Amino acid sequence: MVFSSIPFLYVFLPLVLALYLVTPRKFKNTVLLIFSLAFYWWGEPKYTVLMLVTITFCYIAGLLTEKLRDTRYAKPLLFISVAVPLLFLGIFKYADFLLGTVGSLTGAEIPLLKLALPIGISFYTFQALSYVVDVYRGDAKAQKSWINLATYVVLFPQLIAGPIVRYTTVEEDLSTRKHSMENVALGIRRFVMGLGKKVLIANLLGSLCTAYRESADPSVLFSWMYAISFSLQIYFDFSAYSDMAIGIGKILGFRFLENFNYPYISKSITEFWRRWHISLGSWFRDYVYIPLGGNRVKPLRQIFNIMVVWCLTGFWHGAGWTFMSWGLYFGILLIIEKLFLKKYLEKAPSFIQHFYVVFLVIISFVLFNADTFTMAFSDLKIMFGATELPLYTAETLYQLRSYAVLLVVALIGATPITRNLCRKLENTKISTIIEPVVIAVIIIVSTAYLVDGSFNPFLYFRF
Amino acid sequence: MKKAKFISIILVFCILIGGASLWLFAKPDGEISEWERRKLQQFPELSYQTLMDGKFMKEFESYVNDQFPLRDTFRRLKARVLFDVFNQKDNNGIYVTEGHASEYDGNVTDEKIAVFNDKVNSLYETYIKNANCNVFYSIVPDKNYFLAEKNGYPAYDYDYMYSQIREGLNDSIKEIVIRDKLTVDKYYTTDTHWKQESIVDIANYIRQQMGMEAVNDYTEKSAGDFYGVYYGQSALDLEPDEIIYLENEEIVSSEAYLYENDKTVPVYNLEKLEAIDHYDIFLSGAVSLIKITNPMGDENKKLVVFRDSFGSSLTPLLMSGYGEITVIDTRYINPVMMSKYIEFTNQDVLFLYSAIMVNSSHLFK
């Protein structure tokens, strides 16, 4: 069940909010846990047990880690605490990739496990890991209540597509969160904005990408439209999901950190990754990059550390060489920027900096969205005119006319222009009328799109 | 001021989400969507098995979508936003221009044309070649032929498609070219098909090519308003068409035997006005194999029509003079099965398919 669906909006959400509202404070986490498990079980009945095993393991590991923190058992225990959830992740997400790779390298016929990927396993595994590591480091106290820990891991707003909420972020909220009319209203506003971004922009951009993929009449211009649309789609799709997660969290009294901050206005790739999927970037920074030595090592070692982090970042997104290459692509760009490009970039005119980022990011997403290298190179060859395909075709012009307004809306929406305008209106009298009206319009129009059963996948579900 | 805004936001949310939620479960479930021409999902079976294998969840999601209050109004709203706000050119692939709704389809591949040619050639070689038959084919252009290119919508390269079909089909199958005799006005505005009352000249041209005389003494009868397939798909407020069917003494006295139902019905089956698609009155709609007996025709003069749905409304206009007309829809019957019911010998044989069918040639059995 995705947030942007009729069953979630009109069955699950009202039910959970109504019951949550009438439940005494003491049992609110239990209600959230039950509904979150139901939410997960709805889409993944078989693997709910796997998630519960991971939670229970981390719960016990957390308690033991705290008890044995200053003993010689602490490190081996940490190793086991991290290894077991990673083993689950490895078996379900990466085993077939590794078996297939070994098979193709050795020529041996190794049977694949062919296990379905449990929804959200990358997200909840990383959350569980952050808990055990934070307890080990003394940054968090071990959670005494299994229900509270389970609620943290399975909390439905962020369970299956993030943001990756660190235990320390919500540690306090798990036991003593505040509920207020302001939080509920602001949470609703954030949720509805996310809904609109997803249904009215991301899904429509997805239709354009599908049209390109299904076209028997592609062209250079169409391939660029596809690349730009996919770059915008993945941003609106994923950031919309984060908006909805943060919004529901706020309604329930949780304070999740931001996951996106207008990444397409960045002036360098380094800045881009400070604005894109912030929770993943900061997770790798704090749990991989810094433990490896971070910046406080010799340059060569630092380069090695960066490449490790970006190799893992790519691999986190998917068990495939294209994802790995996508991560390495950014790793290399970040190293180049760090070593020498940054100082030249800073002196360059602003539009050159923006063009540099947007161009390289668009290319990266062509690779990201390709199933194979062959497909990626084919797309890139078309984009750069290295094929016999024409500059444009009748279908290209048709799609351009059909999607022009959407592309303009999406391009503006990817910048802070609208947010800044809203902030100016925030405390005016007119916003008292405009905001509820806009929220009503977005709910009604999004519902209309969802009822018509249009294109509606969540791109980040596959991770 | 802030407090008032917060209260308003919460109220809006509760009224819209909570209200629709209550309405959804309070209202009686619908059974059919006439707009979309399909049955609506009913509340799914709840059992341990359906819960564990995910069937319940999948069907429940369809159920909630299908039974949502004001579903058709929401679909219409979506279409209006899409056309008027986002300025998109089609909704669910349907565009509206020159007063006609049509389904945009810019892709036709050599493979699809080749499959079509192979299927027709295979039928010819296997059953017809040595049966002393006069064999013809005609391809009906869809509405995009008239509407798409000049209004900026992608369309097939029709000339290329027609030439590939001519080159690919056996030379003994003679082409009857009708596309130059058609105009978009001869088609329903809300549907993919042509109007029977507008294709008498087409039918007569085909008859003449097959060596038969033209027939013009028809009486027009109305079957009422017709909301074609694009009406529902476009979700726009289009004016309905009117179904008019043409009768004469021969048509009225003829009977159509439907093999799959083992049932004899009139050529125009008005019982189908109770069904979702009123176009089905012509030869009872999607039926695999029909034998029409015309007592006023020459019992030695026989016609076999391989056809898609365009043939349903044309065939009654081809009947005159033939004692027996066999109508075959190879989307629904395997040729091997067909051969059990038909003996090919000395008939006139017409392959009549639309360009849409050529581009969906994988549907042939």
Could you explain how this protein is built, in words?
The complex is a heterodimer of chains A (463) and B (365). Chain A contains 19 helices and no strands. Chain A has 463 residues and is mainly alpha-helical. Chain A folds into 2 domains: 6-177, no CATH class; 183-462, no CATH class. Chain B is an alpha/beta fold and 365 residues long. Chain B has one domain. In chain B, strand 9 and strand 10 form a beta hairpin. In chain B, the strands form 4 sheets. Chain B has an 8-stranded mixed sheet with strand order 6-5-14-12-13-11-9-10. In chain B, strands 1-2 form a two-stranded antiparallel ribbon. A two-stranded antiparallel ribbon of chain B has the order 3-4. The radius of gyration of chain B is 24 Å and the shape is elongated. Chain B contains 13 helices and 14 strands. At the A-B interface, helix 1, helix 9, helix 17 and helix 19 of A face helix 1, helix 3 and helix 4 of B.
Spatial shape of chain A: globular
What does the average pLDDT of chain A come to? 90
Helix and strand sequence of chain A: HHHHHHHHHHHHHHHHHHH
How much beta of chain B, percentage-wise? 15-25%
User: How many beta strands in the DSSP annotation of chain A?
Assistant: 0
- In the sheet with the most strands of chain B, the strands line up as 6-5-14-12-13-11-9-10
End-to-end span of chain A in angstroms?
16 Å
Largest sheet of chain A: none
Instruction: Decide which structural class fits the backbone of chain A.
Output: mainly alpha
Strand tally of chain B: 14
